[in-house]
Every structure is written in C-alpha cells, then in structure tokens.
C-alpha cells in the first residue's frame, strides 16, 4: 500500500476554497476501493491518504486529479505491511 502525505505550500484558506471538490475526489476513490483511509494533519499543515497497492503510474495519475494539487505537494511512500494489531490484520498484503 501507499502512504501519501499532502503538505500545503499555500495558506490553509486557499485549501478551504478547494475542499468541496477535494472531498468529491476522495469519495470517488473510496467508492472504487482504492483509498483505505484519509484525514487532516494536526496541526493543519496538510493531510494523509492510505492507498491500496497499485501501479505507481496509476497512483500518480489519480493524485494529479486532486484539486489540492494547486495548494499541496505530495510525498508518496510505498509500504509493505507485514505486521499489524489484530484489529488491523486486513492491512497485511494491501
């Protein structure tokens, strides 16, 4: 799977203006089963998305569709989950 960090390079107010289309983008990929979890950073300097394993070029194409590309840089890390607490066993092999 991938851990994708969004790091704002523009003020949060500019991100707020793009929030509705960003949430629509998130919903589309949660509905397709590609996104596992997402949320804001605290303090609010960006966000994070957990993404199921896929071809990196496919992930890059999905990220390029996010309206937040105008306000955030993306840091992508591929993770191979080999251990998980009982409640999160489903993350293994994603």
Write a structural description.
With 94 residues, this protein is α+β, with helices and mostly antiparallel strands. It has one domain (2-81): Alpha-Beta Plaits. The protein is 30% helix and 28% strand. It has three helices and four strands. The chain has helices at residues 12-17, 19-31, 56-64; strands at 2-8, 35-40, 46-51, 72-78. A four-stranded antiparallel beta sheet has the order 2-3-1-4, with helices on one face. Strand 2 and strand 3 (46-51) form a beta hairpin. The radius of gyration is 14 Å and the shape is globular. 16% of the residues are buried. The model has no long low-confidence stretch (mean pLDDT 95).
CA-based gyration radius: 14 Å
What is the tally of beta strands?
A: 4
CATH homolog superfamily? Dimeric alpha+beta barrel
What is the H/E order?
Answer: EHHEEHE
Mean pLDDT metric:
95
Strand order of the largest sheet: 2-3-1-4
- The CATH architecture is 2-Layer Sandwich
Q: How many individual helices? A: 3
The fraction of residues in strands falls at 25-35%
The parts where pLDDT drops under 50 for at least 5 residues are: none
Indicate the CATH class.
Answer: Alpha Beta
Given the helix and strand composition, which structural class is it? alpha+beta
Helix content: 25-40%
Domain tally: 1
Main beta-sheet annotation: 4 strands, antiparallel
CATH topology: Alpha-Beta Plaits
Pfam family, one: YCII
Domain YCII-related: 1-79
Family: Belongs to the YciI family.
Protein name: YCII-related domain-containing protein
